[in-house]
Specification:
Layout: E1 6-7, H1 18-24, H2 41-61, E2 68-71, H3 74-88, E3 95-99, H4 104-115, E4 119-123, H5 133-139, E5 144-148, H6 162-172, E6 175-179, E7 198-202, E8 213-217, H7 246-284, E9 288-290, E10 301-306, H8 311-316, E11 322-323, E12 325-326, E13 328-330, E14 335-337, H9 339-343, H10 348-352, E15 354-358, H11 365-384, H12 387-393
Parallel strand pairs: 1-11, 3-4, 3-5, 5-6, 6-7
Antiparallel strand pairs: 2-8, 7-8, 9-10, 10-15, 12-15, 13-14
Helix pairs in contact: 1-7, 2-7, 3-4, 7-11
The structure holds pyridoxal-5'-phosphate.
Length: 406
């Protein structure tokens, strides 16, 4: 019998929509031109296709197509925005504010900038994963040139108060950048309405191909500029050199068009399935906690902690059938608890007992029913074997137990 395999790891990457693949295929074959070849029909055709995709992507987020810079993905877009602004605005100041729960593409770029003379403030988050606006305002200095806050968190789906942050940035005349990778294509994202000046996102988290992303750069009032991080032919209005990945860009455009058309329906269906999953597990199992803000969050994500159950072990009970992520990050030697959950104040034990379920366009109700049953069985199995769970059930205060070092 064929193994059933259910994919609930859409925040890691989404499957490519077959309609996206179909639009890409001709650009590997007869339409193989280089979009920068100005003197023959192959080049013209490729350039036209890129222009059209740029319009599709711009339409999804309601910006001018000239404000879209194609990159190799959100990692590159984050790097270009942060490093590009730091270099371009060096004379105005060297202070950047970001948040502890950002993606590594932002955090590691900031760390690199610290070596190059930047001063970076990494804001704490509240227990629900959102930043406190008063703390943000208190962190602003005369030398602050950029505030970078992600739209929605990849691990919890928690959405930050983007409108209020935009207002603070406008009040203090500071550039506002957002890694909106997890939000674009899933919920309405209109950076200009919120005063966002730079925004990173990627195709492979919205049913497009891997290896292509975009950076939105505001062009009017203010006209924002970033220093290119790649030297070469001066493509993408001088901000990102390198021959354009035409098939991928065409696919990105199609993915954006489909997202715009189908977002409302996907949201309605997936939030229903997500709520069913969450409610069923919480009704059928004791000591299950939602990590993140239950109201301000993405419709297709839930991050749950199953107390006294080690997430990686739990996953092994069903990972032949269900693909998802745990709250532990595998580093070379050890399992580290997720820094996002730790920043929210979870103890190591609850962080290690968390699982992230991220649903997607191709998730079915059947998938969710199967998952509820598998998780229920897995958690009960793990707890049946656990002396800690037994002690907890006997009412022993686990905090007061003296554990010996091993
Ligand atoms: C996936 C992800 C990225 C990285 O995107 P790539 O296109 O894979 O480089 C950056 N930020 C967030 C929030 C993400 O979820």
């Amino acid at each position: 019998m064929a193994q059933r395999l259910i994919y609930l790891d859409n925040n890691a990457t989404t499957p490519t929509d077959p309609r996206v693949v179909d639009t890409m295929v001709p650009y590997f074959y007869e339409k193989h031109g280089n979009a920068a070849s100005r003197n023959h029909p192959f080049g013209w055709e490729a350039e036209e296709a890129v222009d059209y995709a740029r319009e599709q992507v711009a339409a999804l987020i309601d910006v001018d197509p000239k404000e879209i810079i194609f990159t190799s993905g959100a990692t590159e877009s984050d790097n270009l925005a942060l490093k590009g602004v730091f270099e371009m605005y060096a004379r105005k100041g060297n202070h950047i504010i970001t948040v502890k729960t950002e993606h590594k593409a932002v955090l590691d770029s900031c760390q690199r900038l610290e070596k190059d003379g930047a001063e970076v403030t990494y804001l704490e988050v509240e227990a629900n994963g959102r930043i406190d606006l008063a703390k943000l305002e208190a962190a602003i200095k005369d030398s602050t040139i950029l505030i970078s806050v992600m739209w929605a968190n990849n691990e919890t789906g928690t959405i930050q108060p983007m409108k209020e942050i935009g207002e603070l940035c406008a009040k203090h005349g500071i550039l506002f950048m957002s890694d909106a990778t997890q939000a674009v294509g899933k919920i309405p994202v209109h950076p200009k309405e919120l005063g966002i000046h730079l925004m990173a996102f990627t195709a492979h988290k919205m049913y497009g191909p891997k290896g292509v992303g975009a950076l939105f750069v505001n062009r009017k009032s203010p006209r924002v500029k970033v220093t290119a991080q790649m030297d070469g032919g001066g493509h993408e209005r001088g901000m990102r050199s390198g021959t354009l990945n035409v098939p991928a860009i065409v696919g990105f455009g199609k993915a954006a068009e489909l997202a715009k058309l189908e977002m409302a329906e996907d949201t309605r269906r997936l939030s229903g399935l997500r709520d069913k999953l969450e409610k069923s597990l919480m009704a059928q199992l004791e000591e299950v906690y939602i990590n993140g803000d239950p109201t301000n969050r993405m419709p297709h994500v839930t991050n749950l902690s199953f107390k006294h159950v080690e997430g990686e072990g739990l996953m092994m009970t069903f990972n032949q059938n269900i693909a998802l992520s745990s709250g532990s990050a595998c580093t070379s030697a050890s399992l580290e608890p997720s820094y996002v959950l730790i920043a929210m104040g979870l103890g190591d034990d609850l962080a290690h007992s968390s699982l992230r379920f991220s649903l997607g366009r191709f998730t079915t109700e059947d998938d969710i029913d199967f998952t509820i049953e598998a998780i229920r069985k897995g958690v009960n199995h793990m707890r049946d074997l656990s002396p800690i769970w037994e002690m907890y059930k006997e009412g022993i205060d686990l905090e007061s137990v003296q554990w010996s070092e091993h």
